[in-house]
Structure prediction request, 862 residues.
Amino acid sequence: MISAIKMHLQGIKTGLAVRMAYRADFIISAFIMLISEFFGPLLTYLIYNNEASLPGWSMYEVLLIQGVFLLSKGISFPFFFGIVWNTLDRVQNGTFDLLLIKPRSVLQMVIVTGFDSEDLGKLIGGLALTGIALYRLPRPGLSEWVAFIGLFVISLVVMFGFALILAGLGIVWIGNYRVYEIFSSIANFGMYPASIFSKSLQTVITSVIPVAMLGFIPASALLGKPYENTLYAVIISFMFLFASLLFWNTTLKKYTSSGG
Amino acid sequence: MIIKVENLTKIYKTYERGNTFREAVYSLFVRKPKYVEALKGISFNIEKGELLGFLGPNGAGKSTTLKVLTGILFPTDGKVDIMGYIPWKNRKKYVAHIGAVFGQKSQLLWDIPPIDAFYLNKAIYSIPDKSFKKTMDYMVDLLDVGDLIKKPTRLLSLGERMKFEFIMAMLHNPEIVFLDEPTIGLDVIAKDRIREFILQMNKEGVTFILTTHDLDDVERLAKRVIVINHGQTVFDNSIDALKNHLGDKKVLSVSTHSPLPSLEMPGILVKNKISEYNVELELDVAKLELNKFIDYINKSSTINDLSVQSLPIEDVMKDLYS
Amino acid sequence: MIVHKNKPKNIIYRQIDILKATVLATYKEWAAYRSHMAISIFVGPVTFLVQVFIWNAVYSTGNTVSGLTLNQIITYYGVVTIINYLTYDSADWNLQMLIQTGKFITFMLRPVSHCYYAFCQKLGHRLLALWVEFIPVYLLFLLVFKINLVPADLFWALISITLGFILMFLMNYCIGITGFWLTKTEGLRRAFILLRDLCAGVLVPLTLFPGFMQKILFFLPFQFITYVPTRVFIGSYELAGISLPIPYVVGMQAGAVIVMFLVYKLLWFLGIKRFTGVGA
Prediction:
């Protein structure tokens, strides 16, 4: 366990060192990473600025959902979502094999070598957006904070599930960087209040592919108006993680039987 | 015996997918499987401390074998036992004992100095501080790269990089090291340096399995050679046996003062008749001894110049690869 | 060396030969990756679906946004999506990779302008996208989402989309040329794409921006990539409070293409000077 933590820390250190070789481009890229995440909040702002609204939600409430979503991305993208491009890249150029000759699990190796420092920009953006939204909203109480933190951790679980599915796709679908788009198109559903979607779609985003967990559910808990199916979504989130682990292992097995 | 391979078989299953629109749509529904037999049951043993050349033409099954032996790929059938491990079953435990250098796949990190990549490997293999430093200092010294270790990798020459690849692969003191085209693209001096390093480490007890197309590497390093072709072993013996594989033959270039006599006799194969006075030929010493041949020519035509060389190893390989 | 093995052909025939060969080669090269492209059939409609729900919710309270009806705004997003399939390109990335990997030198040895070659590549690539992305998504929007995807005036719509196609290419190509000066350009490239999409009206119709922003956007070339072709397709143009007849807007678009072409010529001249001066 200690050796695994040591390894991950060394991986982060190395990842930062690699990116620091081109400081200027790193800073620009991290900044772009942050800006590109603001398309959603910008749309929200423009809607409310044009004197329209999403019924039942104030602008800062919607921005809080999007801030939490960005926060979840800001933690998962640098620290583990990098397994997606790392796998894609390595399978395409043949260096995935190099991970298989290391005395660690392949998943651990793709995480360690996939630390993505640029995406730390998202974390800063997430903190800023959540902070701004919270500043304009009534202070949440302790129980809201506790519920939020618990649900936020589960949003990371869902993120990890997505990362595994995309990385698994990257093994079988060689060189297809567009798998990211699959994620971002679906994840869009988690950035808005679930109430704007149709009933059947709400069921899908909470109990089939729990994207609502990525922003909407934890944010609602923090706002003190928890979503009715929260508990159900929590259970589904873990099942989602389990299913994605299964998928990752299946594609990995396929790789080791066909040699990529 | 450190490596035992028995009847290793690998069959790949691929799918045909068409190029035209119709075929593309069709392939969405019905996929025609295609089976490719990459390894058709190969067997061999390797002793501890050997330096083995593992050769074969492109597509012979070399890299498939290497992948199975390093635990990357699992075979369709057959047994492999390396130091008591089955590579693809006890992969994590097994690979802690092996190292690999790929001439075409760098394990270093392009933008940062080799030393940083070494530290990452130290964490991955959980190498204790003391032994890490000792091994690294020893090998850095042996390859004379002490002043380069903190330079960004992208600024190093190919030869310098390859030296660090070797250090990277051997920091955890592996008992077996797999080398895949380790000298590809290197200049003669760098090649020499790498070869000396391999020989030195081999002397210290490391088993090497060398895959290469560079026959110089093989002649200079390997004591034993395995050649595979079409997924089967076609040769497994010492390097000397390999050189004599096509019989004990010599390549001669002869020039004489008067026109050459008839060369149509057993044991002589004329390769290139340049003129009446000058010929290049291959002599099978088993059928016609060298001194008898020289006598014969000298008597009739008086030798002006003569060079004798053994058959180049390329010719043997061409024969085995065909 | 073979000099003029064949009789020197008419220059136009020669260019057409190059065009046909390059378009076909690019088409075939990318056809192997058509499954990557087909991801759009999923991504496009899903992203669109979110927009549909957002705007339905917004309009459910009886509001109108910047004078557009719900139907108009949804049609806008639908048209933007499908026009992007027709005009998308990655000329910036391609050129920057060629320069960074040193492969660009091989194009200096070919008797054909790289820009022309890259444009032919785009044609081939989009030809494939026509049946892999455009047609399936068009049919989905038309039949499943029931969006009115019939251009107000086919003639002007085609011209405007073609001009958008060329402008997008020239702009991206110019960004690619910056690779002659900058070694690491990924950050800059992404920044530009972001700015371009935002100012071209991919995120929201430009009329939703605050008034002063609209005035700035009106004078920037980005609106001619996506916003103008989309508005021409729908049949009415308005930005920064200015309504213009369609032929007039398309004329302005043509002007933007000419200006961009001159910018390309200048940048290329400077870039090549630097490339050959510094050496590869």
